[in-house]
Design brief:
The complex is a heterodimer of chains A (267) and B (326).
Chain A lengths: L2 E6 L2 E3 L19 E3 L1 H17 L2 E8 L5 H9 L4 E5 L9 H15 L5 E5 L10 H9 L3 E11 L3 E7 L3 E8 L2 E5 L10 H9 L3 E3 L12 H4 L2 E7 L8 E2 L5 H20 L1
Parallel strand pairs in A: 1-4, 1-6, 4-5, 5-11, 6-10, 7-10
Antiparallel strand pairs in A: 2-3, 7-8, 8-9
Helix pairs in contact in A: 2-5, 3-4
Chain B lengths: L2 E7 L1 E2 L2 E2 L1 H13 L3 E9 L1 H11 L6 E6 L8 H15 L3 E5 L4 H12 L4 E4 L1 E4 L5 E7 L4 E7 L4 E5 L15 E4 L7 H6 L1 E8 L11 E5 L6 H14 L2 E4 L1 H5 L20 E5 L5 H6 L5 E5 L13 E3 L3 H13 L1
Helix pairs in contact in B: 3-4, 6-9
The chains are: A alpha/beta (267), B alpha/beta (326).
Amino acid sequence: MSFKIAVFIKQVPDTNDIRWTEHNTIQREGLESVINPYDIGAIQLAKNVKFLLKDCEITAVSMGPMQAKEALKEALSMGCDKAYLLCDKKFAGSDTLATAYVLSQFIKTKLNDFNLIICGYQAVDGDTAQTPSSLAQKLDIPQITNVSAVKEVHCDYSVWFKDTNDYSQTIKINHPALISTTIKNAEILPDINSYIKAQTESITVFNADEIEADQSKTGFVGSPTQVKKAFRPVIERNTKVVESDNTDSAANYILDIINKCKEQDEK
Amino acid sequence: MRNKALVYVEINDNRVEKVSKEIVAHVKKHFTDTELCAVLVADDQTIQTIIPDIKDLGLDKIYIIQNILLKHYNVSVYSSVLSQLISNINPDVFLMGATCDGRELAPRIASKLNIGLTADCTDLQLDIDGNLLATRPTYGGKMMATIISKTKPNFATVRQGAFKFSQQQFLEPEIIFFDADYCGLDNLINQIEILKTHKKGHVQDWAEADIIVAGGAGLKSKDNFELMYKLAELIGGKPAASRAAVELGWAPQNLQVGQTGKSISPKLYIAFGISGALQHMTGVSNAQKIIAVNIDKNAPIMSIADIAIPADAIEVINALISKLSN
């Protein structure tokens, strides 16, 4: 029986391309959608596992509107073997808790014999990094976050490199387990077979009933958190422009401020 | 008192994470009519060394969960015992630092208790009914959102450096030992084994320096960027980098300003050849004084900094270095 990996991906607006309306809200029309850059890292990591194991099946899953089929097709072209979309009006407006619940229902009803779940560290349109940990808890499985690479994979356990700003670790974890990775924007070149598969294969869609999701736990209803207001950050200081005739006077001006700052300290 | 706020005090290497103290100071100052409690999770030996360090934060109560099983941080185990405490004492607000560990621990607890959670907040206030208004940057810092939660406790993680730590008057806190149920937790511990750890040293110390000199893409080359290290040393400050400089490979990522999870608040911030994208500026918004040196008068930073000097950044750095070396 082959080793099974689920990779959860999210379609996000391209945050490098954000424009503002006059009301200081994000202009959604015309905003390009892309696969969350960390999720492409997750696909790459899953492919690295597959390379080590050979007999391995990667399933890409996304929760979102029908439009997210595009992201799943792209995932297939990047080398995922299967792709499913979780789509239902009842899922709309889900926060991280409700999202984790929906994803956990997919796993429980459709992929209960998985060995690994691999997620991107966070989605760039929210930056919360909450869904992977929340999902691991819903499934009651161990997890490693901030994973930078895989070291070895066996049927029952695997070994990973974790890398944070403060430390790096080598960690062994028993399966089933959840891994979230900080690899971002991996460059995956589509191979011809995957590309053809992506063009020809239709994406299976599951609704709330098909994954036995309890409506009271999904979407707006099932989401405890709500956005009360959104606004553009305002940074205002009374800027003084100091024109200087030459580099020397500019340097002296800065030195003066540095010295004042240090004197302030000594007092 | 009407409200009860609980702060998770994170311990690493036998010391309290600074962000935990920052949160306590913020709650003490801004949450009215609130009982301020902290929770410590560790083995009893660690607890003994930590208690003196948090006694003078002005806490009303300290909850202690101590057991040999808690000697090393394990997200499954820690989330289990903390969830037990929350269910038992029912705080109105629960807060922890958005550290690397905090950002994986908090969602596990929220998921276990089926409560809402707001990540990486830079501001926290209580409304008149005692509900938490949690404000956070989103879309990579391009937008701010204030989040409320329907469930109690209102739960949030807090960005490091977002609040100022201030020593409080001494108040003898009541110490309460919480007896958690440890049944089955040794199984959770066995699921994960740390084979090797390499500590990177206190690379983040720069973020707490009084003077920070930062370089961006305007420095044109890695060699020029390396002048920042020399300059920082000469003025007794620390070097940092913009995202552009990091992405160009001139500086390591742990020197990046405006990164998710960390704000800085130096007395003086000098930006050389940095254009000042919004996420960069939100990262330094707590700096007391910002000087920008940029040849491009129209760079965003030139109308946001306190002092804008339109000049060639590399020349100014070289001039500063030669003056300071003499």
